[in-house]
Amino acid sequence: MNQEQIGKWIAYLRKAKKLTQEQLAERLGVSSRSVSRWENGRCMPDFSLLWDLSGELGVSVPELLNGARAEGKEKAGIEDSINVFLVWSGQEKQRKAKKLKHYFGAGAVSLILALLQAKFGTVSFLFPDGPEDLLTGILAAVGILSEFIGFAYIRQNAFMTQREIELLSKNGGTVRMKNGKEMLQFAQKYRAVDSKCYKAAFAEIEKELKGNESVIFSATGDSYSRNELPMMWYAVLAATETRLLIGGQRLKGLIMVRYEVESFALNDITRVEQSGFSVVIHASGMELKIEEGNPEAAAGIARGLREAAGIK
Length: 312
What we know:
Elements: H1 3-16, H2 21-28, H3 32-39, H4 47-57, H5 61-66, H6 72-120, H7 132-154, H8 162-169, H9 180-187, H10 196-208, E1 217-220, E2 223-226, E3 229-239, E4 243-252, E5 256-265, E6 269-275, E7 278-283, E8 286-291, H11 295-309
Antiparallel strand pairs: 1-3, 2-3, 2-8, 3-4, 4-5, 6-7, 7-8
Helix pairs in contact: 2-3, 6-7, 8-9, 9-10
């Protein structure tokens, strides 16, 4: 990627939309100086802004980063090779920052407590029967260990495994998945999520697989309704070669929740379409609706599900 070329491309698209740098910055929630730096080729927009920026400028993320509009097969190829890595890179960046914050934060607190204990015996007030030197040593050891773990984590290889690349870059019908972790990984190509609830929902899907049955398509949504009746939250989809599984979180009583799975034969699905922020599935006279985070995610998931189910 040529940073200077991308900057000129951003400036060209902004002017074509008749937007000033200040107006574009306001829509994105950044400063006009940031927009200026992008257009001058001095820096790149943050990963988290690329989807919003491309939407405001009327291009796809791959077209934005390629510095030109793409058409036909070329467009499909670019989306498969670039968009996938952007999704992963943005998530990896957030995940790593969160872990590093925990490691270094815990280490710093422990070292400060060790210093206070050695100087003033602060921690001894909480543990009056404990040997002061031992408490100081334990706190110092925990602090140093946490800091070492943090530095070690920075040095870890951040490249994806071959299997992760497969799950993110292939189309429905070419990858076989047997466990919930892989289903969640595959779903990231449509929508970035990182929630224990989605992991739990896919784990429930995993339990429902029979014998040699495997999943060829998976996706996530905010909620699931059947004939406009709310059914589940943190909805997940998983298509095998013969059926569609929809799982998610359902209330049990007033405050308890449980995870359930519904199954529909692929032969009973007559149509899959996007409707605004939703994916609408017509099956056996029922309308199944999965609410998504944005129209682009809904369109991608609807297209992927149609391919997996062999529906034109």
